[in-house]
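Late entry, evening session. Most of the bench is empty. Finally got around to the prediction I had been postponing all week. Sequence below, unchanged from the version circulated by S.P.
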Amino acid sequence: MPAPFSAAVEAVRRARLRPELVVNEIASPGNLAPYSIALSADVTPARHGSDSDLGTGRFILLYDPEAPEAWGGVFRVVCFSQAPLETDIGIDPFLADVTWSWLVDALDSRGAKYSAASGTATKILSTGFGELADQGDGAQIEIRASWTPLDHDITAHVEGWGELLCMLAGLPPAVEGVSVLAARRDRS
């Protein structure tokens, strides 16, 4: 394993994530880069003592010593985060913009330095029919993003992603200056 990637793996494993998150190292996709490490995380209501919605996410750190031109560096972060919402919030025309700003705020609050950020924020609205009619209407927000770390402080990037996942699940921010706009759907 190349020394820069080995150091980055240690930085990923050093991340201090919120206690509401259950995080596991998982198999990473083998076809995106010569080296990678991946994490999965789930927000668990038992950890914060309320019946909040669950959120889920993935964090993948890619390393290619050839520094692909599209990346603008040797490392690239790819992440996914998703959480259910109140249906009224799901139809908000500014929800995608706010969700992207949460990602930027979460990374900035941890001091993550990055460039070439890209991604999508997707609002999902659903209505159950037939056997699923009892589920009624529902909504979810999903963000898929990638960026190039500008330094080797990968810990800050992992912690920022963890903060984003908690914010999407409706938990108050752990860092002063970052605000959550609305509570999430009660799934009981």
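Two things to note before I forget:
The chain has one domain: 3-83+95-123+142-168.
Residues 95-109 form the longest helix (15 residues).
Will write this up properly tomorrow.
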